[in-house]
Amino acid sequence: MKTDDLISMLAAGNPAPPRAPSARRFALALFCGLLGALLLMACLFGVRKDLAEVAATPLFWAKVALPAALVLGALWASGRLARPGVAVGARWAAIGVPVALVWGASLVLLAALPAGDRLAQVLGTTWRTCPLNIALLSVPAFIAVLWAIRGLAPTRLRLAGAAGGLLAGALATLVYCLHCPEMAVPFWGVWYVLGMALPTFAGWLLGPRWLRW
User: What residue range is the signal peptide (predicted)?
Assistant: First the structure.
């Protein structure tokens, strides 16, 4: 959106861009980001060999539920932050609640284990690479989502950048679940969340520069 267009809308008493262009831009960004993450994952990591078997278990879908819920929450927040004059308000809970649930479940599960077994549940076998892999897979979506946000005249640039980064990170984590062998809830609560936090922080840092229109 151009400055003259925004001025015309403000003068007409309509502070927010129409929903249809917003939905189209985000749909295109999500498609490009998802496709890019899938291609990167297939080329760099591959799909886990037992995916068909593990996908038949409730635990796998519990793992997928965390990034899927955050994709929806971050998309909701990004869509509102991308438009001037639109508040996010209590909708931040759509981001906070899934993370809080996973952390709560992690604490309960760890408390039920012997002290000597707890660290293994948190670290798994891939803790050194998991967050960086997620951050790498998030790059296509990060670029696409920030493009979508920038075209809708955001005014809260750091918050909009952070929400867009979280959306990219959650989408990348969703794809990464097709490769990741880790099935312990405490592992997801630490390393998946950290992996999503990296593009979130990058969006917060780069928002004022990349989203300025």
Answer: none
Q: What is the DSSP string of the chain?
A: --HHHHHHHHHTT--S--HHHHHHHHHHHHHHHHHHHHHHHHHHT---TTHHHHTTSHHHHHHHHHHHHHHHHHHHHHHHHTSTT---GGGGHHHHHHHHHHHHHHHHHHHTS-HHHHHHHHHTTTTTTHHHHHHHHTHHHHHHHHHHHHTT--S-HHHHHHHHHHHHHHHHHHHHTTT-----HHHIIIIIHHHHHHHHHHHHHHHHHHS--
- Residues 54-111 pLDDT 10s: 999 999 999 999 999 999 999 999 999 998 878 888 778 999 999 999 999 999 999 9
What does pTM read for this prediction? 0.88
